Amino acid sequence: MKLHVLDCGAMSCDLTWLLLKPGRTIRPRSERDRPVEWYPCTTHAVLVETGEGTLLWDTSCPRDWETRWIPTGLQEFFPYDQVTEEQYLDNQLGRLGVSPENLDYVVLSHLHFDHAGNVRQFAGTGARLVCNDKEKEFAFGFEGEFAGAHLKADYEGLDFETVSGDTEILPGVTLIEAPGHTPGTMAMRVDLPESGTMIFTSDAVYLGDSYGPPATPASIVNDLSAWYGSVEKIRAIAERSGANVVFGHDAAQLRSMRTAPDGFYE
């Protein structure tokens, strides 16, 4: 069993989108003139190789982000402008010698533009596309081209299988239902023989600063009450299992990890 973390570069954004924290993004009047803090909103994917199948977790942002995101206007708020050619997802997989045809599963933590942006690369390859049932219902059910950061151009017309609740999808790989950020956000738990348990929160928890305790919310939350519940669910699982918790967009954490193609976990 082997796990590869794929560093797919970063978007740039006002940190307030990710963190509503007194003293950091929520400022007292004495700091009203302090400049906005722009943050390298890192994006990653995870490749898990097991004896019974290979799984890709999330697909990051697309090369054509600047034109594809025009209907949402989010290209002005989350420009994907801190990425090298080798960090685009297809090149990251290629550096590991992995082609789309080698994958058994492509699992989307949720269907936002920075997580499902490259999912079409895996259509018709034999890989099973998987998301949460509540996520699919919402993402395919609204009227128009987009709702918030859900952009139908990313995923419309693709055939997704769904899971509900907490689901072991491969031996040692469990999808954890963690709604709040979106109706069907999931985290992923991977139990590795040597490295121990790792939990990838995706946007159920953006940053270490979000995790706390106490948990600190963000600007992009569909259901705040559900979000708090999901953070504490992840915390409880992590405490029971002694897990290394990997947050969705934490730049400092990602840069401290073993990343592909040079490093991996097993």
Automatic annotation (TrEMBL):
Q: Identify the SUPFAM superfamilies for this entry.
A: Metallo-hydrolase/oxidoreductase (SSF56281)
Keyword Zinc listed? The answer is yes
Which stretches make up the Metallo-beta-lactamase domain?
42-249
UniProt keyword Ribosomal protein, yes or no:
no
Identify the cofactor(s): Zn(2+)
Do you know which CDD domains this protein is assigned to? AHL_lactonase_MBL-fold (cd07729)
Q: Name one Pfam family in it.
A: Lactamase_B
Superkingdom as given in the UniProt entry: Bacteria
Q: InterPro entries, from UniProt?
A: MBL_superfamily_lactonases, Metallo-B-lactamas, RibonucZ/Hydroxyglut_hydro
Alphabetically sorted, this entry's keywords are: Hydrolase, Metal-binding, Zinc
Regarding protein family, the annotation reads: Belongs to the metallo-beta-lactamase superfamily.
Record's protein name = N-acyl homoserine lactonase family protein
Annotated source species: Sphaerisporangium corydalis
Lineage from the top down?
Answer: Bacteria, Bacillati, Actinomycetota, Actinomycetes, Streptosporangiales
